[in-house]
From TrEMBL:
Pathway: Pyrimidine metabolism; UMP biosynthesis via salvage pathway; UMP from uracil: step 1/1. Uracil binds at residues 194, 199-201. Belongs to the UPRTase family. This is Uracil phosphoribosyltransferase. The keyword Magnesium applies. Coiled coil: none annotated. It comes from Bariatricus massiliensis. GO terms for molecular function: uracil phosphoribosyltransferase activity. Residues 6-208 form the Phosphoribosyltransferase domain.
Amino acid sequence: MGNVYVMDHPLIQHKVSYIRRKELGSKDFRAMVGEIAMLMCYEATRDLKLQEVEIETPICKTIGKELAGKKLAVVPILRAGLGMVEGMLTMIPAAKVGHIGLYRDPDTLEPVEYYCKLPADCDEREVFVVDPMLATGGSSVEAIRMLKDKGVKNIRFMCIIAAPEGVERMKKEHPDVDIYIGALDEHLNSHGYIVPGLGDAGDRIFGTK
Ligand code: PRP
Ligand code: URA
């Protein structure tokens, strides 16, 4: 059964408040999204399985611990998820990276797929899907469905800001997926934007409008 974790680390809370500010420019916004992703990754990998390994230090042989099984994969939902990739890879540099392209139709708010390229062995990996925003949940629910269609069994979802509506939809559609959230906000407005949120994450990361 999947769990929902709202990060309470002070550095994450501090940085999330920073990127909410409307006056923050793209350069600083992008840098801080990367830092938040890095900190969230550290917290969200606490329970990864370890295995014992025999190693030899300059002094003697000993038993150490290393990550068990195949390495991880990170899958950003384009575009905004790209902003979290570098931070994730700082923590887990051996991870492979897949990409899922979805945009939200502004009228229906339903996700529209335009790209999907995943590591060939992604079904054997633990996959971290990343996207700064979980609003209606349409995009993340669809991205995770696409991964499950490819046989991926171990999936975690990480977002910086979530609306309760999106969390509920994710729990209903993908009850097996753990969800890691930087901040859980109040609600969605009539245009499907998170309140108080931070506006359009993709536009703020890439300086578009
Ligand atoms: C944003 C965001 C999520 C999605 C969340 O992407 O990055 O992918 O909206 O909304 P939802 O939970 O209601 O689906 P957007 O569609 O604006 O595309 P972009 O990343 O290319 O800007
Ligand atoms: N996508 C965003 O980028 N921001 C929101 O508030 C909702 C969806």
